[in-house]
Amino acid sequence: MTVSYSTEGITHVRVRPLALDTGPEGAAVAPGAIEAAWDSAQEGRWHQVYVNGQLSAVTAKPEDRRLVVSAPVGPNGPAEMLLVEIIAVDSPDRWTDFGNLLGGFAEDAGAQVRLTWQAGHYLDSGLESFDVFGDDRTGTIDYGTPLNELPIPARPGGLVPWGYGCGGYGVGAYGEAGAVYGWTTDLLEPGTWRLAVVAVDAAGNRLASAAEVEISVAPLPRLPHNFRLTAYDAQTRRAALAWQPSPDL
User: What is the reported pLDDT for 73?
Assistant: First the structure.
């Protein structure tokens, strides 16, 4: 049996400590747990929650998108930075621990980049698709292997994305030049990247000189720190919190 998990389609992860409670003397008591919530397009699969790389909880039903999880959270905030990860698994793997396989938070994690371009640079009757190439931050674009796994079609679904049809304005420079295409990269490491878009015909021949662009990918901002409780009213059970913002924002 193949064991697998997925993070695809899991977005908008929200984590918050449970409300502070009061002890016998009215002092704030550490809740010792967090509430994790998320959105997921993984229908029919269970979700696991990991805290600092440790399997902490599993949803009771595939449709669950919220869990309360034990975590080292005190009245002055987390005792350490908490890394919370959500993954989707099939029923047989609900209690399989994938902690040693998860990448976790990395300081060198970058971002995805969305490229868009107009077809006016590539007008050719044989236009079939596009390829995107990159330089892997070397300064020289490698035109040997495209970054996209599959060709980016010039006519998605067999339909032309330009003009008013296939005659007159449709096939001339006016209509075809206005077509807009787009493609999103995988996660790119921080740094300066050079990317190029190349038009290709059905035989794989390049139709025009590449359109190149240089972009800068910034690293993820550092987390806020010094999270602390500054005041607590036992009668109203209201707490005032403070923290130092990320120095990168």
Answer: 59
Please report the DSSP string for 109-169 in residue order.
--B--EEEEEGGGG--TTEEEEEEEE-TTSSS---SS-SSSS-EESSGGG---STTSSSTT
Give the integer Cα–Cα distance in Å for 162 and 89.
42
Confidence label for 45 from pLDDT (cuts 50, 70 and 90): very high
pTM equals 0.50
- pLDDT exceeds cutoff 70 at 163: no
Q: In percent, how much of the chain has pLDDT > 70?
A: 71
Rounded to an integer, what distance in angstroms lies between the CA atom of residue 27 and that of residue 66? 29
CA neighbours closer than 13 Å in the CB half-sphere of residue 91: 5
List the beta bridge partners of residue 134: 195
The residues near 99 (Cβ < 8 Å, ≥ 6 apart) are: 50, 53, 54, 55
Can you tell me the distance from the alpha carbon of 218 to that of 111, in angstroms, rounded to the nearest whole number? Answer: 8
The Cα 193–Cα 49 span in angstroms is 34
**Backbone torsions φ then ψ of 69, nearest 5 degrees:** -130, 135
- What are 226's two structure tokens? 């010094």
Residue type, 43: E
- Judged against a pLDDT cut of 80, whether residue 120 lies above it is answered with no
Domains contained in the chain, CATH given: 5-105 (2.60.40), 114-217 (2.60.40)
With the CA atoms of 37, 39, 43 and 46 taken in that order, what torsion angle do they form, in degrees rounded to the nearest 10? -30
For residues 211 and 109, give the distance between their C-alpha atoms in angstroms, rounded to a whole number. 27
